[in-house]
Design goal:
This protein is of the alpha/beta class. The chain is 35% helix and 14% strand. The protein has helices at residues 32-41, 53-57, 64-70, 88-99, 115-118, 130-143, 163-172, 195-204, 218-228, 256-273, 278-290, 298-306, 312-324, 370-382; strands at 10-12, 15-17, 21-23, 46-47, 51-52, 79-84, 105-110, 148-152, 177-181, 209-212, 232-235, 345-349, 387-388, 394-401, 408-411. Strands 3, 4, 5, 6, 7, 8, 9, 10 and 11 form a 9-stranded parallel beta sheet that branches. Strands 12, 13, 14 and 15 form a 4-stranded antiparallel beta sheet that branches. Helix 8 (195-204) links the parallel strand 9 and strand 10.
Length: 431
């Protein structure tokens, strides 16, 4: 006998949502790799990074950076595109254009506290103009085929906490859902979130209300739901470095092996999604949060966070090293390749070889002719010859077994014509 279908936790208009935990939209963090990872771990829907309506309505194709923000996977649905602007007509035009890309919901950002955005009347600046909010939601709800939602704060400052008025305006003008960050624009991300305000909004509206603010642990999730009666809980900064919270697992309960596997999976998605080494560069801010629970030395943290070559094998080894003990590249204090890596091609950024990038942003720029200097440093480290890779900030080495005694010597590595050492980042490095 077939079991009945699972009932949705709540519905945004006609869009069912299965689950009560949601990753908050965060500029610079909630990209497709991180969203899909959180979705896999239990986040119920995916909000994209917010997009400026002015960038959407411009003639021609969207800028590649905007395209990346709007990209999503089918498994992320329901997907919410979030827009910000202070002009109702421009927001409508942008929403109509984005609707063609197939989102499930379009959200209006009324919570961003950045001065560059809120100061011009967008983001949290809209909280100061309730009449304009009414116009925005009336226009969008009448013209769009998908539901419209809003993410708000409690008001501009403590003297203008008009959250209840704004929430009612959203519902009365066709809004299908309200997410509430329980702080004012003036508070930013400081101070204590006012959960009583969320409860007040929930009691006044018939549409779903999502609570946000001061949720860092699984116990916080349950306390917020019990205190406010909200339909779902939105988690932002606390999810960075701790996506397991969407599985209702606290960070202290996550094993080192789980952290390692998740970091590698996240890195793979970043490298696949972004061009060149951008994915690795952007991954650093996630890596620092993943490793915040580990007692790494200054040198270990610098080594992991300054590596900027896109060879996945080496990066994975660097991640593994933080959970498996010794440095996989160099013996402690010796400057020699470890035996398991002899006979392999190693391509590494100067940061992995001990250069201090805080002192020298470009490790090869300290002399007029930087290549000989790099050779000297590498020769002392590896006791071999090196050369600088073309058009990269990398030094390339090959360790070759000597005839007779089997010991390693170093020399230049020559690849077949038309092939480079970075064409196959996933290939085994064994020669």
């Amino acid at each position: 006998m077939n079991s009945s279908p699972k009932a949705p936790t709540f519905c945004a208009g006609k869009i069912p949502v299965y689950g009560d935990l949601i990753l908050s939209p965060m500029d610079g963090f909630s990209d497709m790799p991180f969203r899909s990872l959180c979705r896999q771990l239990g986040s119920a829907m995916s909000y994209t990074e917010f997009v400026n309506a002015q960038n959407v309505v411009q003639k021609g194709d969207l800028h590649p950076s905007i395209e990346r923000k709007l990209a999503f996977l089918p498994c992320e649905r329901p997907v919410v595109y979030q827009l910000f602007d202070n002009d109702p007509d421009r927001l409508l035009e942008a929403a109509l254009r984005l609707q063609e890309r197939g989102p499930d919901i379009i959200d209006i950002n009324m919570g961003c506290s950045l001065r560059s955005i809120s100061g011009r009347g967008a983001g949290a600046g809209l909280m100061r103009t309730p009449v304009k909010i009414a116009r925005i939601f009336r226009k969008l709800s009448r013209r769009l085929e998908v539901p419209v939602s809003g993410k708000i704060r409690l008001g501009w400052d403590q003297s203008a906490r008009n959250y209840l008025l704004v929430a009612r305006i959203i519902e009365e003008n066709g809004g299908a859902l309200v997410a509430v960050h329980a702080r004012t624009r003036q508070q930013g991300y400081g101070g204590r979130a006012d959960w009583d305000a969320i409860a007040e909004i929930k009691g006044a509206l018939s549409i779903p209300v999502i609570g946000n603010g001061d949720v860092r642990t699984v116990a916080d999730i349950e306390r917020l739901k019990a205190h406010t009666g909200c339909d779902g809980v939105m988690i932002g900064r606390a999810a960075v470095g701790n996506p397991w919270i969407f599985s209702r697992i606290d960070r202290s309960q996550v094993s080192p092996e789980q952290v390692r596997r998740t970091m590698r999976r996240h890195l793979e998605r970043m490298l696949d999604f972004y061009t060149g080494e951008q994915g690795l560069v952007l991954f650093r801010k996630h890596a620092s949060r993943y490793l915040s629970e580990r007692r790494l030395t200054k040198e270990q943290r610098l080594k992991l966070l300054t590596a900027d070559n896109a060879i996945r094998r080496l990066k994975h080894l660097a991640i593994d090293a933080q959970f498996a003990g010794p440095d996989p590249f160099l013996q402690p204090g010796a400057g020699k390749l470890r035996k398991p890596f002899r006979g392999r091609l190693v391509e590494a950024h100067a940061g992995l070889l001990g250069f201090d990038n805080r002192q020298f942003p470009d490790p090869f720029a300290r002399r007029r002719d930087p290549v000989p200097d790099a050779r000297c440093r590498a020769r002392r480290l590896l006791r071999g010859n090196t050369h600088r890779a073309q058009d990269t900030g990398l030094v390339r080495y090959e360790v070759r077994p000597q005839e007779g005694d089997g010991r390693a010597s170093a020399g230049r590595h020559h690849l077949p014509q038309g092939q480079t050492g970075t064409q196959h980042p996933d290939e085994e490095l064994d020669s």
